[in-house]
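S1.2 Input.
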Amino acid sequence: MRCFGVLEPGLFTTIQDLGRFGYESQGVPTSGAMDEFAFRIANRLLENEENDACLEITLVGPTLEALTDTFVAVTGAEMQPMVNGIPRPMWSSFPVRKGDILSFSPIKSGLRSYLAVKGGFKGDYVMGSVSTYTRGKLGGIKGRRLEKGDILEKNPSPQVLLQTRKVREEYIPSYSSEEEVRVILGPQDDYFEEEAIKVFLSSSYVISKDSDRMGYRLEGPFLKAKERYDIISDGLLPGAVQVPANGQPIVILKDAQTTGGYTKIATVISPDLSKIAQLKPGDTIRFRIITLEEAHKALEEMEKLIEKIKTSAKEIKYFTVRVDEETFDVSVEPF
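S1.3 Output.
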């Protein structure tokens, strides 16, 4: 079903689900949403399946024309959505009608927003996923970012009146230009002197302009290896922190290669990858070591939070009011 026409594509807008799994041995990255937390909440607000594809919007939002009546939700970076120029709240679901223009205000904080549609967006289904991997030209729309003139389609969904909802303020993440992320040391931390590990855990690193969905290159204190930085190539997963011969860490992200031959001093825990996804070049990362047991607890707490957000979301009512031949959009949000 056709749902949106792309009037302006934004800077880097792609179709993403939770990723492409099971093909790492063939060199195919997982790809998928960079900020899984915001992605999952967007789908939950629409009562979609959690893996239903959304638009991942980076820094500058698109302008879309609705081609059918439907419901959408927007989460992630503070990039306020607008329907026909009328603001809609972030971290909420709301209706759009055929002919409406959906646009986004300039970004205030964070880097990536997620636009979900009832039923989920359609895309090229490759290796079990519609996630866009632009380097390999897989998934999404011909394996590329959105372009002006594209027609977006969505999966069929029940034609029922959806209860539009908003996440409570206390559960909405705040995005900063400096984040502390939790790591587990290894698997090659033994390649580094104890002093280098202390430097890694006590220093601030700036995200380089040479960063993207493949990985964030960091600039900061030099990390000296005992003898060498290269290893026999082994597996790479999002969150791995590689250290090449220049002594500057690289945080591996969703579109990275599946193997690598540089030492990995640490691994970012999966709940904190969503924090990293909202940082942009020039922002700062600090690393804090935790245990494997603490990492498991952090993941459990995130899952509980997602459930709590779903059950506690506030209902918002939208009305169309006509006065003296003029039509007004009215929303009512309970206290």
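S1.4 Remarks. The chain has a mean pLDDT of 94.
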